[in-house]
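hi support,

uploading two proteins for the ticket. first:
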Amino acid sequence: MSRVHLDYNATTPLRPEARAVFLEVLDSAAGNPSSVHHSGRAARAVVDDARARVADALGVDEDAIVFTSGGTEANNLALFGSLEALEGPIQLITTPVEHAAVLEPARAAAERWGGRVRLRLLTVDAAGRPDLDELQALIAEGPALVSIIAANNEIGTVTSYGEIRAILGERSDLIYHSDSVQLLGKRRFDLSAVDLATFSAHKVGGPVGVGILVRRRKTPLAPRLFGGSQEAALRPGTENVAAIAAAACAVDLAVQETAAFETMTAARTGQLWTGLREAIPGIQLNGPALDDPRRLTNTLNVSAPLQDARTLVVKLDLAGLEVSAGSACASGSIEPSHVLGALGIDPQRAAAGIRISLGKSTTEEDIHTAVDKLRRTLGEAS
């Protein structure tokens, strides 16, 4: 049975170039980067080179790069680190369509700090974009940490950094963080408008276990861990040298290939949606319209009539098609997608929503096969 993988927003295969770097560094730089002897200095040089490569790819200074164990840790460091470094009452303004790696820390922070940190969730429209007038009104009330996702992992909605910065202005009592994990390699961007941004290497062909927090403008940040001075004392612990080097390779190449990725996946996603509409009566698109320029070109979230997404994903897997019901990080949940719920979609349709996400190796044949497997599986379920 042929299998088609269309769940690239969950993770991506380790690209050959990154794998080669990983294996090379395992052999050539096995020392502890904090040691002063030859092996330690060699390992330190690899980490420094990786930091420079990532900084150049993202268009920031080298000292803005903090390596972590993944996007989740980077988000936690951004939120808890900012709130702990700041004094006095503060709002934590975010949206109900954030990844759980932002929403759950935000709720935990509000609970931990009680009245000092007030959690505010912005209203979003049917495409998942925040109400900017509401944001304007909230920041008028006082200091705030604003965390708004750059590209939604479930529905592909893109929110412009510049649009948010235009609302925030240059006030020193406002910090702007963006979970940008899904943006990297899928759309070109300029980080000059943000204070903190988070990325994850395994979303772009790098190894699992390496995240990146970009900290610009010397944004106040307190460490979450203690026991060493690594990563400017923000993330102590011996660095995973080989994985960091491989991650830098993957990030660099993904940024270089962004334009080609956008062009290819836009065409493939268009073919997929056309095929699904022809093959499956009543299928609905969730999130921004396909011709909306402010959406990821590789992501499609759809609901078929009278279906349960979790059951459908299992049936599709048995048929050889790999997709997801919402975020992979929430795969243990039995609740409908919180993202689709926040869009105002009715519960039955939200419960039917599946995410289909394309990758750099997705072919036209994959698209035709996926449509056929979905058509057959839904036909058997009816």
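and the second one:
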Amino acid sequence: MAQLRLEQRPELRQILTPKLIETLKLLILPKIELESKLQQELMENPMLEEKQQPPKEQTKQDAEIRQWKKLLDGLKISSTQLPRVEDDGESDPLLFTKYQKTMYEDLTEQLAAASRDERTKKIGEFIIGNLDDRGFLNISIEQIRDSLISSGVLSPPPTLEEIEKALRVVQTLSPPGIAARNLQECFLLQLEDLDLKDSLAYYIVQHHFDDLKRKNIPQLAEHLGVSEDEVENAFEVLAHLSMFPAEGRGLTADIVEPD
């Protein structure tokens, strides 16, 4: 007769709990079906509450960009398209996938090549780290100085002149317009990069930016003492400038959202 006995043996097992199963079901849903499923659960379960995303604070740059978009209405902006390559179905896309640097990595590498002064580099890296996703600098020179003093990164503490110098170095990096403090400065930096500092377009942006946003070409031409055609040509130049210094790349790595 077989003897019954009790013994312990270590064993690794993977168990799918009901909660984990439900989670996996949600993860594999397409985005549209997931939204529909969540709305259904909200209606059926009174204990669930939808958390509203707080509205994004509108900055001065946002207002200027909206005005500039209105200004570009009706203007024809040229664009280029890359030639389309037919897929033969045999190529492995992973073979052609390369690592793309973030804007922060790209700018810090450019900064290292652009300046040999260690203090300028450290201040410049701090400035780059405080750019928003569009490439604008939304903090003042004084705030940068106070933050650097608090962190104790530099000894002696940096002066406002040193910070202005470092900012100017960062603003010479690519893409043009990076680290601009407003849309007007963003345009001026791009025009400088195009060697158009002596152009009518540069003068209009520098001295008549508010008039520019109103798009009153006859009045602007009369005020400047030039023809309307010259003002329209200047507008055409400005129409090809970027409103976003970071050109959509952002300062951090992109997050791929599943379909």
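thanks. also noticed: Residues 29 and 175 are 39 Å apart (CA to CA).
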